[in-house]
Design a protein that fits this description.
The complex is a heterodimer of chains A (about 775) and B (about 120). Chain A is mostly helical. Chain A folds into three domains: about 1-260, no CATH class; about 260-555, no CATH class; about 570-700, Four Helix Bundle (Hemerythrin (Met), subunit A) (Up-down Bundle). Chain A is built from 32 helices and two strands. In chain A, helix 14 packs antiparallel against helix 15 (about 290-310). By secondary structure, chain B is an all-alpha fold. Chain B is built from three helices and no strands. The chains are: A mainly alpha (about 775), B mainly alpha (about 120). At the A-B interface, helix 24, helix 25, helix 26, helix 27 and helix 28 of A face helix 1, helix 2 and helix 3 of B.
Chain lengths: ~775, ~120
Amino acid sequence: MLSVVLAPFAASLLAPFLVARLGDRAALVLALVPAALFGWALANLGEAYPGRVEATPWVPGLSVPLSFNLDGLSSLFTLLITGIGTLVVLYAGGYLKGHARLGRFFVILFGFMGSMLGVVLSDNVITLFVFWELTSLTSYLLVGFEAQKPEARRSALQALLITGTGGLCLLAGLILLAEAGGSWELSDLALSRSWLQDSPLYVPALILILLGCFTKSAQWPFHSWLPGAMAAPTPVSAYLHSATMVKAGVYLLARLEPALAGSEIWLYSLLVIGAVTMLTGAVFALLETDLKLVLAWTTVSALGTLVFLLAPSDEPSVKAAMAFLLVHALYKGALFMTAGNIDHEAGTRDLTRLSGLARVMPLTFAAAAMASLSMAGLPIGLGWVAKELIGTAKLADDIGFTLTSATIANAMVFAVAGIAALSPYLGKRSEAAEHAHEAPWTMLAGPLVLGALGLVFGMLPQLAADALITPAAAAVLGQKPVLAIAIFKGVDWKFLLTLATFAAGAVIYLLWRRFGAAWRDASAPILARGPDRGYDRLLAGLASFATWLTRLMQPGVLHRYVGASFVVVALIVLASAFRGRFTLAMPSDGGLVVEWAVILLTGAAAIVTALATTRLLAVTALGVVGLGVTMIFMVFSAPDLAITQFMVETLVVVILALVLIRLPGFQLGTPQQRQGPAALLLAVAVGTGTALLLLGVLAEPFDTRLAEWFAAESVPGGQGRNVVNVILVDFRALDTLGEITVVAAAALGGLAAMMRVGRRRADAPPQSNLGEPR
Amino acid sequence: MEPVLAILIGVLVAVAVWLMLSRNFVRLLLGFAMLGNAVNLSIFVAGRLTRAAPPLIADGAVAFEGAYANPLPQALVLTAIVIGFGLLAFALVLAWQAHVRLGTVLTDEMRIAEPLPEKKEPAS
């Protein structure tokens, strides 16, 4: 199965070369890849129950294998992905004929195909997640394919952000799920319901996974990206945004149904979100004039229906969900392609400007009509079968809310089927229809095949049921259900309800023809405040938060950076100091007088430096501190340090004086230079922490091994009796070389800077500060 | 004497931090020099103190006889003193040049690299 998933990726790599050589005829060659995979999936249908798992090691260190599972559910999706994929590739060859970036288009499209196959075949949750994210990425690239259009870029980004955020939630949810369920394989998790749902991780895992699925499958309130995604070329809308990718969330819900379903939180979140999405999509579909947007909103509605049907997790509902999934993929794919044909041949998809196309585009009309029969649920389409099953499922629930909302949504979808299939084709020829003509065969094959399949399955429902729907439902339910489907089961009140739905739908359609424009005008101000606006607000808020945070963290004010750094230092030293033991034991011998004198002098000089209001005093006090340190080195047996420190200190004072004389005085009292109590507190905190830390270090027993080693090796190893010098020039000679290099670099840098100052002086002498009062 | 020196180091560090928090670049550099002294001293003290026994091996001997000061911190500090000096000298030249070019030693006013943001930026 690994090769099945990899095949589209291979085609993806080859696509640009084929397009470069064959032009748009490359589509005919490329379509062979999904066609072959379709054949593979058909040939393996018999094995679909109870499923077959294959694993290839991938990241053995993390025990993440590339494991794939082919069961009824993945078979159904694989057939949809490869079958519709074949037709879409053909279609794209016609639709994007002569497009400069056709090669790139196929690269991404085949990348998507492989990723989507990976999603529906993966058994390992991490593998699944990786492919899931790949579908989001390829979707982003395809929505933004016409990247020169700002709205395409916006829509692409919106789709990526919403599905990407959901993807992160999903990853967290899957990890929790695997922890709670005790396995990273979906086929094992399906058996873990009994202990999984008692785990405290169950609820957080479920919520996170639902967020992932709902964002991917455009459930309310995350649905706004899907209509935006219609900025993509039509083959993409037909493929990703109706038939396959948006169903990934539904797929994962179905896949995890054995493990997660059955709880109240599952039941009610799916039921409510599904119903709201179903109704929202249906209402909004009636308010659009762009044919693709109408279809996009009905897709939202259909996805809501699917989620809704997965809520109760009983046999009738699951069967209905699987049947509707198949039906929807067929008719919506076909309808999108016919919409694309109209757009391509008539130059517009605005429903108010389209009518009477039936005579100029008879085959497109035939395809649209067949698909609409299915969509409306009229008796000869597969949609009828699905609607029947849905009706059974709803009644089995016996929840008034579900029945009502489903009936209302069904009536509206019936009306939209009329809008999509009838209004552009019937009536008087509009101006746009005048110079339209029929689409090429590559663009007719897809809609005609899909539309006809819907009818064939509708007339022979048992065929679809045995081959596809029952095995898929079996995978979801974990047992093999029996599915008996009859086209007509006699007149009962369910049948009458269906008739009533049709009648209501027809009325809505007629009302739409009459009052559609008025509805749009009336609803425009309300729509302006939908989740799409919320998305804009959220993005703007995020941007201003980022600006605020950056200003806070990067104020461009040096003393704030220094302050922040010292706050961290204070926390670290104080925390470490209080972890160790320390004593304030004074030296047992009381210390020598000279030691106390030097230490007190140094401390006093340091405080004078802090308080000095003139530069001269500050530099002098600093020099005294340096000399005090020199004497401490001297007293405690470090003559080399004392000599070096003495020389350096002298030089520092000289250089300081030389530089300071050219700079203005302190003016400490001015508001710009005043330091507040916060700075004092911070200084005391860092100082105290350092002292405590050092006391803690001193309280620990001292390890003398290094000192002894250097002392023992100095004469035999380094031929020197001054051990400090031997360490510097022999044992750690490379460090000393580095030190010399640093000093040389500093000298060169200082020299360069001074020469620059000198040049500037020569050009324009700046104000001298020599006579400035101290 | 180590604990007393630890407290002295605490005082030096506190003064250094106080000076470095100043908006005046010159005081910041004074604090920087002070911090260098404090850190060197703390390395020295952490290696323990020994009175009147420098790590010098007597002529003719190949090893110490009796107590000797720990040579390793001394070697480390010696490197640190020199590098600290190089850094301070370079920073002082920078301060001088900054004053010549920008006409200020106040860090708030040195804003060439990170200029103040416009009052109202479009958030996007």
